[in-house]
Design goal:
Layout: E1 6-11, E2 14-19, H1 30-45, E3 51-56, H2 67-71, H3 78-86, H4 90-94, E4 105-109, E5 112-114, H5 116-121, E6 126-130, E7 134-136, H6 150-157, H7 160-169, E8 173-174, H8 175-181, E9 186-188, H9 193-206, H10 209-221, H11 228-239, H12 246-254
Parallel strand pairs: 2-3, 3-4, 4-6, 5-7, 6-9
Antiparallel strand pairs: 1-2, 7-8
């Protein structure tokens, strides 16, 4: 289990998680999954960290599962199996399918983000893509199934007919299409995705931490399945206490 497959760096209040297997198009590995799992738990537990950036080293974000390793059977990684015995859903937590952090995660995508790359993207909150980025949920083309959440999340995040087309054809989607669909929020020049993500992260860090925390609770806990009246009750429950905080007294004075 190679720990270098996932690099985790902190700079002030920002945690940067880099998928670091460029020779294999940043295909998922045991070390990468373990590293991401630990990074998300660190983000949640460390009060000094306020936001994370997820990116990939080189000209690919993530090409999903390592199909070469799957096709060849591969050797069992005993260290990873021991970790999985302690945390059976570790791989799903790593891919942001389960137990997503209560702090924002910004994706900075260069190049291909297909299969698992697009699956983990749907677990992030803010998404920046370089103009050469390519997305797609291509499992059906390999006789597989996208268990990272795409059959549920994709149609909630973009129009149903577009989600069905992507899932059932397995076709690739350009960065501009992804922005038009609403899968990503920003498209920037090649090589600038990480810098743009950092700008957004710094803006979040400048805001009131209690405000951001309460907003993240709303984003995580209240989805479209809630009736509007119930969701508005939760908004008062979660957002109301922010107004009694020190931040709420200092903010207007600073303004």
């Amino acid at each position: 289990m190679n720990p270098d497959h996932c690099l985790v760096e902190r700079d002030g209040h920002v945690l940067t998680v880099t998928l670091n297997r460029p020779e294999a198009k940043n295909a998922l590995s045991a070390g990468m999954l373990a590293g991401m799992y630990r990074a998300w738990r660190l983000l949640d537990e460390d009060p000094e960290l306020r936001v994370a950036i997820l990116t990939g080293r080189g000209d690919v974000f993530c090409a999903g599962a390592d199909l070469k390793a799957m096709g060849g059977g591969g050797e069992r990684d005993e260290e990873f199996q021991q970790l999985m015995a302690q945390v059976p859903d570790l791989h799903w937590q790593a891919l942001l399918r389960h137990n997503r952090p209560m702090k924002p995660i910004i994706a900075a995508v260069e190049g291909f983000a297909v299969a698992g790359g697009t699956e983990i993207l749907q677990g992030t909150d803010i998404r920046v893509a370089a103009e050469d980025a390519v997305f797609g949920v291509t499992e059906a083309r390999r006789g597989l199934f996208p268990l990272g959440g795409s059959s549920v999340r994709l149609r909630r995040q973009i129009p149903y007919t577009l989600a069905a087309e992507i899932l059932l054809t397995g076709r690739h989607v350009t960065a501009q299409e992804a922005k038009d669909f609403g899968l990503v929020g920003r498209v920037v020049k090649k090589g600038e995705a990480l810098a743009e993500a950092r700008k957004l992260a710094d803006q979040i860090c400048e805001n009131g931490p209690l405000s951001v925390r309460a907003l993240m609770r709303m984003l995580r806990e209240i989805d479209e399945s809630f009736p509007e009246a119930d969701a508005l009750v939760k908004e008062l429950e979660i957002g109301g206490p922010v107004f009694a905080s020190k931040d709420a007294r200092e903010g207007p004075l600073a303004f």
